[in-house]
Amino acid sequence: MRTLPILALSVGALVTLCAAPAAAQSYRTHRFDPAPAGDSLFGIQSPITSGARDEDFQIHGGLLFDYAYNPVTLNSELGTEDRRSIVSDQAFLHIAASITFWDRVTVGFIAPTALYQAGTSYFVDGDLYEAPEGPAFGDIRINAKGAIYGELHGPFQFGVASYIYAPTGERDSFVGEGSVHGGVEALLGGELSRFYWNLTVGPHLREKDRLAGTALGPSVGFGMAAGALLGERKQVQIGPETKISVTPSETSSRNTFAELLLGAKYRFAENYVLGAAGGPGLTQGFGTPDVRMVFSFMYTPDAHRDRACPMTTPVDSRAAGDSQ
Q1: How far is the C-alpha of 284 from the C-alpha of 28, rounded, in Å?
Q2: Domain span at 141
Q3: b/e for 153-170, b at 16 or more Cβ within 10 A?
Q4: Could you tell me if residue 126 is inside a domain?
């Protein structure tokens, strides 16, 4: 299969790069990772991305904006409930592009930039935590995904994805690790008439570190989504999605990330999709906001859409009468 050699190379590169030496501290607390361009959800990868009907490849691309309120808070003293917002506001613009080959393999990148950040610097237990100021470039993500089983718009799909982050972000601005990091995911999903579902699970490999006494490091992530497809051609999609990340080492509420988004997408002019989502954070983990809002605009052709939702052809009454 064409899928397996490409995935093997990407996973091998991930293991090699993650073994490289890294800086002593990593401050990347921005935990919203958009799905690759061409996928149907906001933050959860789909097993299959649409390719082209008559060509070997299809290009997808667009922009995604996300805003988080209170993504990084600390207690004024360890063990107290007095929250201090080190990062009170964080707004990111993500530029995404992907290429899908043969309906089975997708490769791409996502380049994030923090357009606006605000917060207040505080001393906590004698240590100064400085709030970020101004725009900052984040860690670029390189994606590779292969569909193992199923067809686009089919009831059951299975795929495997890998991703690598290059250390292009500013560590002291809470947007970069300062080292290469990444992971792999198993992807499940499908469509049943006007219902869709997705499940993902996989590890995220990163250097071990501590922030305000909390252990940070390798984690295991889970994603779930389900919803409805509305309209004559299923051009409207609406439903919730949630992502959870758990740090197995010294697990606590501060290194457990979870949030919920309720989102909707609308396909128009055949090849363009607008999306909006919002929802609360579900834990107090670093990077989990009180509220997150997401907006997206994507160019994402779906060459198989006519087979999934054929249009009804009107019957000419005069022609019908003549045939009788």
Answers
A1: 16
A2: 3-310
A3: bbeebebbbbbbbbbebb
A4: yes
User: What total number of domains does the chain contain?
Assistant: 1
In a domain, 315, yes or no: no
Distance in angstroms (rounded) separating the CA atoms of residues 33 and 224 = 14
The answer as to whether 323 is a domain residue is: no
CATH number for 67:
2.40.160.40
Whole-number Å distance between alpha carbons of 56 and 67: 36
- The letter for the amino acid at 145 is K
In sequence order, the 6+-apart residues with CB closer than 8 A to the CB of 99 are 57, 58, 59, 60, 106, 107, 108
SS3 content of the chain, % helix, strand, coil (to 5): 10, 50, 40
Q: What is the DSSP string of 179-222?
A: S-EEEEEEEEEEEETTEEEEEEEEEEE---EEETTEEE--EEEE
DSSP 8-state class, residue 142: E
Which H or E run contains 129?
A: strand 127-129
Bridge partners for 143 per DSSP: 108, 163
Task: Spell out the per-residue pLDDT of the chain, length 324, in tens.
Answer: 545 444 444 444 444 444 433 333 436 778 899 999 999 999 999 998 776 555 678 999 999 999 999 998 876 554 445 678 889 999 999 999 999 988 789 999 999 999 999 998 887 767 788 888 889 999 999 999 999 999 888 999 999 999 999 999 887 788 888 889 999 999 999 999 999 999 999 999 998 888 777 888 899 999 999 999 999 989 999 999 999 999 988 888 888 999 999 999 999 998 999 999 999 999 988 889 999 999 999 999 876 665 556 544 443 444 444 444
| Any domain includes 94 | yes
Exposed, middle or buried by CB within 10 Å (0-12, 13-18, 19+), for 29? buried
